[in-house]
Design a protein that fits this description.
The chain is α/β, with parallel strands linked by helices and 616 residues long. Helices cover 38% and strands 14% of the residues. The longest helix has 18 residues.
Amino acid sequence: MYKLFSILFMLLLVAASCNRTEDEPVQLTAPFMMENEIWADSMLLEMTLEEKLGQLLFLKTDLAVKAKRDSILNWVWSGKIGGLELRDVELNNFLHLTDTCQQMAQLPLFIGSSEQISLNNQLADQDDFPSPMAISAIDKDSAYDQLADLMVRQFKSVGINFSFAPSINFHQTDADTFNVEYFDHDRERIIHRSSKMMDKLQAQRILSIGSDFNDLHYLASDTIGTLDSLLHRYYNLVQNGISGFKINEKIFDPDSLGIFQTYFVRNYLRKELDFSALLVAEVASSAKMGKAIYAGVDIFVVNDSIDQHLKFMTKMVAQGLMPLKQLNTKVRKVLMAKKWLKVEEQKPIDKVAVAENFDQFRFGFWRRQLFEASIVLANNPKDLIPFKNIDRKSFKIAYFGKKDLQEFYEYFQKYKRFTAYDFQPVDTIGFEALKVSHFRNASTVLVFDNLELDPEKDSALIQSVQELAKVSEVAVVNFGNPFTLKYFEASIPMVQIFDRNEITESLAAQLLFGGWSAKGKLPLAVAEQLPYQQSISTPVIRLKYTVPEEVGIAAYKLVDIDALVNKSIKSKEMPGCQVLVAKEGKVIYARSFGYHTYNKKRKVRNTDLYDLASVI
């Protein structure tokens, strides 16, 4: 009998193991939800209604108006806000104000960030790192991992404890809408990255709020698992303990709310994902806040008008539209999250750690490498790029945008002189057509700067570009929205750059002439001729202009050149000169000094040409 029981037991174990998958995640709740509720409940008993409502308000603002700082301090002191995200402020001001606020607050504050790549991009005096879409164009995932590690260190060093990361947004393959803050449309890649980001954040006791939830689907019948597929990226994060989701404002569409029951978003997530942690939403008005309350949101991100929002919320409570029981449930979760953060145990700001994590010199070259790796040569028929036989060609640049293109022009001119033309859109009719006869005898580079071309309104321009490409060499450099490229024929070379700055402008010009070869890949499908992951490399045929670190030389080692030359000019050993340092086919220093003659009538310029001769 015992032997028979043993055999049956073994068979049951085998059967059970067959029904399990090796990678099946262990279901977890958000870490803060496992905190003891006793402290939160004791605080609730002592809090006034205004203090409870204040815990649900998260202020997202800047310091553009001088009086704003005093308002923030007053709101914190009186318990009218529970969280703060400061944007476009200098690092030192950020540190001073957030530290002051944290010390003044009766309850710990959420100090937040919406950044997905680097805290640099939130601060006014730090050099920006590439956008999420630009990072998606980089072939190696290691770049994202390294950036995530740095960002978490930055958060920890400045006291940020509430992160609207990871981003779970992606570009739909059948949509033309573009957002540079989104990653690519590879769902599995996004799921993998978001899980790692969440783990990194919460391992350092930083609340991870996935951004954004925008998939509210009600299916009458789902026999093929459609809903599971649609919610897969959220399910993965919930199973691994994400602290909350930021709800996309599109869910609060005024035409759709009437068909839903109260707390429809909260109930939907609980039913479909077994999720009961924090729900957050940005609300620009009282009307939006009312809809968010109706949907079951816990924390409301506002830009200003704290007293007005508190007045509206008080009215909602009085009218029974946010019952006291529901309010206490929301506040209890917020308090439990703040208890989990252990703000009271945090040490004072470590200025050394801050300096290390925001070291412009330390990360400057890496930042440049990231921008370079994100540039995509998306199309290059007939190998037109790099331009060849340029001594026999004339060049024209047509710029479509609203900003100065100084760096692009400066580096283009290092290879070839050109004539530039600026085109501005006419509000009602878009861009005018190019005069083909005016450009046909030159090689033309069209530069589009963060535009969204309208195939109807801008049809004249689009058609004229196609006509010009039939009779002359044409190349397109596109900054920003990659869907601009889909309006042009496959016969035109196209360079796609997601972030425009001094680095990418200079590199774009050098790419056209073969100073370097692009390695980025299209992170989304743009058109049939511009598919996902498209990447084209080109030969390097000319000098590249770069920084000394690229060839293993520290920039400070070249500083003495300036002093040496200026000393020689001052002692009249020469009226002026031009100095160029190149290594491994890369120019790392090029500067002009003084005048051609001692009468100081003509300055030495980098574009000057010289006779070459041997002097004996």
